[in-house]
Structures are given as structure tokens and as C-alpha cells.
């Protein structure tokens, strides 16, 4: 039995067989061919292109019906690769010149393309490498007469093992057939990890050696909560984990009993427990898990995996749907948060040494008022259909907040002059996720209707630890005293100014740390829908006074580890 440690991304235990994707080496034999075999080889190549095209269109249809048109559009880029005349012509001309089998020639041309693209420092082109690779492998498999079932077609539950997950792999991942996943790279708050929680499947990321140590078919135990993968476990370990799996199932059933109850402490303090979503079709899950609203709607996913920009009408329809479905509960729409680890192919973003510190989020929106205004118009128009709020990501200082307000005022004036109705008093909040904003929260609070703390970014910026980098993941500590002090300052500043303070970073859904946040006076906790029942259960099991004592003790401690241990001990004591 081999034990591999990674980063706990989505909790839960899964016992199943490995299905390795992405980095498998396709061995392509090199065979000489005769002049008269060339037409046949060209025909083979054309057939492989046609089969690949059919396969992608089918997959696109399936994803479209099961997951929605947005996810299906991922494959448009793949279809474009199939039409790349330069690539096709190079294969045919080399085939005629070199007299070597077409599969080999194609694999060589593919390698050359990938090599050239990877040397160019341009994020747009880097995204294209994944597409070329994906489609290239499909073509190769057809040329070699091999097939790999796509994730969407898997018949039995598997544990997906990948170097990283491409957008198309993630979108094709269906709850029914992917029981868990493991990746070589990534951090706890990377897009892959957040997605795993949405899909409710255990995941361990940043394993580094997953694809080298695990083969397809290996029996695995994935402990998503501990961030551990056991390869080829012995009988005794297997039995122990089966029992643990049952125990955890029992516990989560227990939590479900609290899902529709208010999040009220034993001594009467009520907080709001809401959900984070990326797509409108997550609304049923929010309701199912007892979400009291949507505290973060990450709208940038709307722009992803498509070649064109979403129109105002598309934005409007999506926001209207979510607002109506959640009514009377509030829905907080975050304006476009592009950049960092989220790149969009529609914009040719300049290469940046430090994308997380670069042209991101509100900075991008202020520089592109055309794009920003279109989204604001749609949000305002949709505001008459429910209880909508809006907030700006990555505010780093007062001027930025004021500039954003100015643009919002212009959009309101325009709509008013056109006679379009909207909620004149739509609450407008600022995400506090940059240390400079956290430290000047008292100033920002004068011009915001509410705050939402984005700990995923606040932690990376305050501790100087990239959130997606597995190499420094050990330093990514939500419980670090510096982070706690910043959070305390934000909450106190907000309250002094009479505004509510919520949190929508992953930290809000961390069970043991939630006691500190409750004690610090956080008003709203927003998290992946599946965590909601457990959080409600916890809040209902403590008194506010206990939580305040825990927070004040935690703030006296010197390291993240001390805080974590202290909270864990208190958590076990109270929740036992
Ligand atoms: C955050 O930074 O905590 C946050 C909620 O936003 P995102 O994870 O989308 O950057
Ligand atoms: Mg953020």
C-alpha cells in the first residue's frame, strides 16, 4: 500500500478504481510507407478528422443537454482546431515528402505546434495549447484505431487522476460517473478545487506525483477531507475506510436536519448562511441545501469557454432567472472578476509576470467601461425581478470604489432617461480581498452598502502565497494571525459604519474556523451549497458568547497552527 499526501480540496471518502487522463503517453510507431500507399494514408487522416469532429459534436450535444449551453461551448474551440488548414496541409505535405505513416507524421507536427505555442508568452495562446493537445490526442487515437471513453460516457464510477483538469474535462465530469478526482497541481482555492465542491465529489489536488505513481485500474482510497490518497490498500485499511465512509454519511444526514432551520445561536444571534454559485443552474442545489440567499454569484464563468462576449440580453436573462428563483432571498452579483487564474479567450490579455497582481477584476472593468457598463445595465434591469445586490471585486482603495460608483451612476442615468425601470436603491458592496482595502475598511465603509470578505484572495495577498501553487500551499493559512487581524478590522470597521459584513471566501465554510468568524461578529457566511447544512448545524450548537470567547482567545495566539489546533479542540468539545 502506498500513501500519497496532497492538498484537501473537497471533503468526503471515496473507494474506487483509478482512471488516469491527460498525460497518458500515446506510443506512435514510425513506419515507412510506399508511394502508392499515400492516398490511403491521406484518406485515413481525413477519416480520423471526420470521426473526431463527430465525436466532439456528440459530446457537445450531450453536455449541452445535461449541463447547459455555456459548458457545451467549450468545444467550439476544439472544432476550430480541426479546421486549421495550416496544420492539415503540413501533415499532408510532409507525408508526401517523407513517406512515413500518417499517425507518426501527425504526432510530430502536433509536437512542433505545442512546442512553438508554449514558448510564446501569451495567455490566449497558452489556452489554445490545451485545446490543440486535447483534439490532437483524439485524432491520434482514431488514427491508431484506439479509443478512450470520454468522461461523460463512463459506465462505472471511477476516480479521475489527472495532471490538471482542462475546462473540457471538468465540464464533461458528470456526478454519476466521477466518484472523486486527484490532480498533480493546484491549490485549495484553485478553480478545480472550488468546482469539486460544486460537484459534491471528494478531491485531493496538488498531489504532484499522482499521474506518475497511479495507473488506470489501481484501487484507491481518496480521503478528500485529509488530502490523502491510498494506493492499493490492504484489507484492514479498506474495512476501516468503509466504516469511516458510512460514519461520514451518517453525519451529513444528521446535518441535513438543520438545513431549513435558521442559523441562530443558542443565545439568539442570527446570521445569514448563503451560497456561492458559478452558474444559474446551481440554484436548485442552493435551495435543496437550505441556502438563505446567494452571497456570491461569480459571473466571470459566463464569459468563459466561448469565443464571443455574452450580450446584455444573455446577462439579463441569467440574472433575472436567479433573482426570480431565489426571491425573496437576496442574490449578490459580483461584477466581472477576470484575471489571476481566470483567463478569458475573448480578450487578448497582455502577458503578465504576476497575473494575480496585475490587470484583474475591477481594474480591468474600469479600463473597459464598455464591457463593465453592459454588465451593470443587465444587473440593474434584472433588479426589478427580485432582491438583487451587486458588488465589485478586488477593490484596493477609495478611488477605485468611487470610479466604479461613477460608472454605475452613469448607467443608472442612461436607463432612467430611456425609461427603463430598475431598483434605484440596489445595495452596492465592495469585496474586501486586498490588504490595502482591509486596512482602510473604515474609509471604504463610508461609500459601500455592505462588505464581503474574499478570503481566497485576501490570504494569498496578505501572506504572499499564490492560491493556486501547490509548492507553497503549506504557507496558505486561513488561521494565520495576520489574516485574523485583518478580518477583525474589516468586521469592526463595517459595523462602526453601520453596514453588514459577510464573507464569501472558502474560509466561511471551514467548520472549525467558523466559530472564530461567528465570534468576530460576521453577519453573513457564504459558501458552496453543500456545506450549508453543516454550518447551520454548528451555529445552532453554540452560543454567541462561547464563539466570542473563542475568537478573543484565538487572537492572542502566535501562529496559524496554534490557532487551528485551538479551534479544532474547541470545535470537538462543543460539537461532540
Ligand atoms: C475570494 O477571493 O475569496 C473570492 C470569494 O473570490 P474568488 O475566489 O472568485 O477570487
Ligand atoms: Mg477573489
Q: What is the number of strand segments? A: 17
Order of strands in the sheet with the most strands?
Answer: 1-8-7-3-4-5-6-2
Strand portion? 5-15%
**Sheet with the most strands?**
8 strands, mixed
Structural description of this entry:
- This protein has 576 residues and is an alpha/beta fold.
- Helices cover 49% and strands 14% of the residues.
- The protein contains 23 helices and 17 strands.
- It has helices spanning 38-67, 69-72, 74-82, 85-98, 102-119, 123-143, 167-172, 191-199, 210-213, 235-256, 283-288, 312-326, 361-367, 369-382, 398-417, 435-439, 441-444, 455-463, 481-496, 511-520, 532-541, 544-554, 560-575; strands spanning 2-5, 7-10, 13-21, 158-162, 178-183, 203-205, 219-223, 228-231, 263-264, 270-277, 294-298, 330-334, 387-392, 428-432, 450-453, 500-503, 524-527.
- The strands form two sheets. Strands 1-8-7-3-4-5-6-2 form an eight-stranded mixed beta sheet.
- A hairpin with a 4-residue loop joins strand 7 and strand 8 (228-231).
- The chain starts with a strand and ends with a helix.
- 45% of the residues are buried.
- The mean pLDDT is 89.
- It binds phosphoenolpyruvate and magnesium ion.
